[in-house]
Amino acid sequence: xxxxxxxxxxxxxxxxxxxxxPYATMLLADLGAEVIKIEPPGGExxxxxxxxxxxxxxxxxxxxxxxxxxVEGRRRLGELVANSHALLVNMKPSAIRRLxxxxxxxxxxxxxxxxxxxxxxxxxxxxxxxxxxxxxxxTGVAAMTGDPLGPPTLPGxxxxxxxxxxxxxxxxxxxIVSARGGQVDVSLRDVMFSQLNYRAAAYLNEGVEPQxxxxxxxxxxxxxxxxxxxxxxxxxxxxxxxxxAAFAAEANIDxxxxxAERASRRNEVLDVVSAVLATDSATGWERRLRPLGIPxxxxxxxxxxxxxxxxxxxxxxxxxxxxxxxxIGGYEPSYRPAPRLDEHADSSGEAVRRAPxx
Length: 358
Description:
The chain is of the alpha/beta class. Helices cover about 40% and strands about 15% of the residues. The chain contains 15 helices and eleven strands. The strands form three sheets. A six-stranded parallel β-sheet has the order 3-2-1-4-5-6. Strand 2, helix 2 and strand 3 form a beta-alpha-beta unit. Helix 1 (about 20-30) crosses helix 7 (about 160-180) and helix 7 crosses helix 8 (about 190-195). The protein is elongated, with a radius of gyration of 24 Å. It starts with 10 loop residues before the first strand and ends in a 5-residue tail after the last helix. Keywords: Transferase.
């Protein structure tokens, strides 16, 4: 017998675009929530990006086409809201308000509905375009990333959108647990500032501006960065003296016993460590250091990483995807393919009749 997911009986409506919103609701769907993706006539825009892109953000959902600008669309939305726990929408604030997708507009249908607005700068922050890379530039993330002698650098994936999706899912569940209903406001900008936690605190309290170090070196811990080896790059992350003692013994390095000493003599430490690591390959050092409990990894490409970790890959219809990162004891998610456009229009009556659980 299949064990119900922890969110079984929770219905969530999504008016999501591209990544952040759809990613948030997909994680909730993986945990057993019923997620109804409300799409405009013609479909959500990410369907145009590519089949695998859409599949990676929208598995385990239903799809209904509703023209939210029409009277009939408003009526259908109200019926769904009346029997749902939450609505998550990521659009410009003006569009959210114009389409009536706020708590103030929807409470007439359901006082306990939770409305999550996922925007660039907050519901009251205006309509300036706010894409992932723009927010990285605006919040200082790009400026602190990359080689110190090179240009600002962006990571190779959508770090802002994914992070904000996680925060939005957390806010949605927190307000459902409160059983009060209401508006939840999550912005790309605020999430990234939040994730700059110790960097921002160091500047706000000690006036310490972030610096870029070669090979992505950590500002506090030494050695904690990428290193060139005899074959490939190695990530070595030594955060305390016990790690250093184990590494130094294996690498035959003397001295630099304390964290404070290693930080104050950064360049000397890195010169010694770099010379030693150049004597073996990245995978060779990984094999030698991991049994000692030292945080270390050879730098791998995504294909190499997926081949080495097949357990993270699941099948949803015709697509292979990375599965849910949340493991719940006794529960194994099922992975249904992303819905065809308006696939569940005929079941909308049944969906409306099922009242949300308390």
